[in-house]
Amino acid sequence: MSDVRPVLIFDSGLGGLTVLREARYLLPYERLHYVADDAAFPIGRWPEQDLHDRLMKLFDGLIREHDPKAIVIACNTAFTLAGEALRDAHPEVPFVGTVPAIKPAAERTSSGLISVLATPGTVRRAYTRSLIESFASKCHVRLVGSDNLAELAEMHLRGEEVFDAAISAEISGCFLDQDGKRTDIVVLACTHYPFLTNRFRKIAPWPVDWLDPAEAIARQLVRVLGQAAASEPSHEPDEAFFTSSPQNPSLKRLLAGFGLTLITR
Ligand code: DGL
Question: pTM higher than 0.85 for the full model?
Fold first, then answer.
């Protein structure tokens, strides 16, 4: 008998859908619940203590309500801040986290110049600094905090117009050209950003590798689930829960494109 408890995938907004689509591909039978704390969006600008407290309280409720067999925190901003505390508070639930892909970037770079594009919160985190010290001490790592890109990604996803100049202003700091070497990898350290990759490619002053961790996160979920992965199709729909209780039909349509039914209360 397969375990029909859902896997909960969490983000502050629509960014975690970049991870959900990979999870859906690798785990076609899994029942997925997508939770967005959109009432708090964007969380990249929140003070650390306030955000930490909010996340701890929110997850107490989510775990009670959804009884998930695993949780994917598809958000760098949340996981680099509260991942460890959440694991300590809920040892019965396996957590899969999202952290800036600094290690794979350091392994792949040819020029040794890497940029990490992230929210201001993720850029400030001690967690991010320690990833650089542990895995990229031989590289030149530039941290680029973006105030607006997560919101621009949501606008783009909703079909609203986003001008090249607005995107360019957020990503231009990623491109370093010094001593005959150029940045060759940009780590997308916010799950919203892969929705804009085609726009980034068009705007970039030279080609770089835009590193999206979504597939690696989904693979980690497969490993964590192990035998608990669903082996037959669930007859329950995949559902989405948004903390602001949005009612708008365009969001319903957008989520339906990801196979999700928006639950409104
Ligand atoms: N998607 C989130 C991340 O990976 C952040 C978006 C926000 O600022 O709320 O960091």
Answer: yes
Best residue among 190, 195, 243 to mutate for probing ligand 1's pocket (most ligand atoms within 8 Å of CB) is: 190
The ligand 1 atom at the shortest distance from the C-alpha of residue 16 is 1
C-beta of 55 in contact with ligand 1 (< 6 A) = no
CATH topology of domain 102-212: Rossmann fold (3.40.50)
Domains 7-98+215-263 and 102-212 in one fold: yes
pLDDT in tens, 159-185: 999 999 999 999 999 999 999 999 999
User: 155, 147, 141, 125: which is closest to 211 by C-alpha?
Assistant: 141
CA nearest neighbour of 184 among 239, 114, 245: 114
Expressed in angstroms and rounded, the spacing between residue 188 Cα and the centre of ligand 1 is 11
Predicted confidence (pLDDT) per residue in 232-257, tens digit: 988 888 999 999 999 899 999 999 99
31 and 234 Cβ atoms separated by less than 8 Å = yes
Instruction: Show which residues are catalytic.
Output: 75, 190
pLDDT tens per residue across span 204-226: 999 999 999 999 999 999 999 99
- CATH 1.20.1250.20, domain 7-98+215-263, yes or no: no
